[in-house]
Write a structure and sequence with these properties.
single chain; 85 residues; alpha+beta; two-stranded antiparallel sheet; 2 helices; 2 strands
């Protein structure tokens, strides 16, 4: 195993240990919002209460229900040209 592989395995082990002790999810849902001016913002949602707070905010400010928005699975920082159009 290369030294890089060793450190990657060590990093993932430590991350898993820390997350399991703190009872925090290893993966987060992300709300990606793209504006008309092609600017975007990400919200990392780490708990159900965070989601409910964002859902309530967007319902009040925009009238949009986050439960009805399209969902997709993506890798962190994986952007396509279509995302910015």
């Amino acid at each position: 195993m290369s030294i890089l592989g060793f450190f990657l395995v060590l990093f993932l082990f430590v991350q898993n240990l820390l997350y399991s002790k703190s009872k925090v999810d290893f993966f987060y849902d992300v709300l990606f919002i793209k504006g008309r001016n092609h600017k975007f913002i990400n919200f990392m949602i780490s708990s159900e209460s965070d989601y409910k707070e964002l859902k309530r905010y967007f319902q009040i400010k925009t009238g949009k229900n986050l439960d009805k928005t399209p969902k997709k699975i993506t890798a962190l920082f994986e952007f396509k040209k279509e995302d910015f159009k």
